[in-house]
Specification:
The chain contains 1 helix and 9 strands, in the order βββαββββββ. By secondary structure, it is mostly beta strands.
């Protein structure tokens, strides 16, 4: 039977979990995830885990934080004046917003604290600092 190789386009089903067992993402009832191995559109360690798998095969892998979304960086947490937000935007804790960094690139941030005059935002990826566990099933090699 054929095994997945670098450069192959494959379809996989997956469930992503944290160490405590909570699920952060799953392909579930959606169409399987289409991946070109080596295209770096998903976490490289996830792609590498697919290499050598055969259609119908399943495996569980653990990707350390430094190979996933990196460590949690405190310097990416900032407190800004509430007045910089548009007047019609009422920030809420947990809300995800897009902003622009000093280089002009779009950055997703999460509102973590709100006071009368300030808003604390966190530009870390929501999974930064987390080891990730994936249950992967190779559906097909296209």
């Amino acid at each position: 039977m054929t095994q997945a190789e670098s450069g192959d386009t494959v379809k996989v089903r997956y469930t992503g979990k944290l160490d405590d067992g909570s699920v952060f993402d799953a392909s579930g009832n959606r169409d399987p995830l289409r991946v070109v191995i080596g295209d770096n559109r998903v976490i490289p360690a996830f792609e590498q885990a697919i290499i050598g798998m055969q259609p119908g095969e399943s495996k569980t892998i653990k990707i350390p934080a430094d190979e996933a979304f990196g460590p949690y960086r405190k310097e990416l947490v900032r407190t800004v004046e509430r007045s910089i937000f548009p007047a019609d935007l009422e920030p809420k804790v947990g809300q995800r917003l897009n902003t622009t960094n000093v280089a002009g690139r779009s950055v997703a941030v999460t509102v973590t604290e709100i006071s009368e005059s300030d808003v604390t935002i966190d530009a870390n990826h929501i999974l930064a600092g987390e080891d990730l566990i994936f249950d992967i099933e190779l559906i097909e090699i296209i």
